[in-house]
Design goal:
With 221 residues, the protein is an alpha+beta fold. It is built from 7 helices and 10 strands. The strands form 3 sheets. A 5-stranded antiparallel sheet has the order 2-7-6-5-4.
Amino acid sequence: MGELHKPLYTLRLETAPINLLTHADIIQEIKAMCEGIYFVSADVAYDVPVPMHRVFVMSNHDSRKINPNYQDSWYFGWKDERKKNAYCRIYDKIAEQKGNPDTDGHLTRIEIVYKPEWRIKFYEVMTYPPQQNEYYYAKIIDDLSWCKARRRTQIFNQQRGFGEYSWHIRNEIKKSLANQVDIDFNQLASDEWANIMNAPASALINERSISFLHNQQLVNG
């Protein structure tokens, strides 16, 4: 009798992390059939407690520009690029939750897709936080009253994707914003990544992998 071979398929599971816990029975059945579990991508959200007009984000690459067809949200990229690494959306989180009595004040959300070029085994994912400063320069604008009117207009246009500026002008904009508050994506992600990924990692990896990860954290710590 010939040896039986399992058919090889790739299953991509896309869901909110909480669902990995609330549907643990289904996840266990899927895990039992898998030979390997890998991290593919995640939408990393950075919440900034200021109104949207005070958040300035500029791409570090010419190929990634703000889509000017939307006013309520700012998109770096087009619809067919939604799943690509570093695709970015910026929007008013409070306005999105309109009607929710628990929401108040100001909250701007910056969502950036994290999709590594290499395959990461899920039990190792907590050791690879996103490094998204490579793609975007970001500031919280506090006060620009000291800037010349021309520079303020350039900052406004760059923020919303109105027109295109040379690298010289963009560098001058950076100089003008040097005294504003930094949004350091790398630091924010590094501080929270292990906590964010703990629940999905616990749901998807086995005890042996958890032990390996724990030992790695002890070594690195």
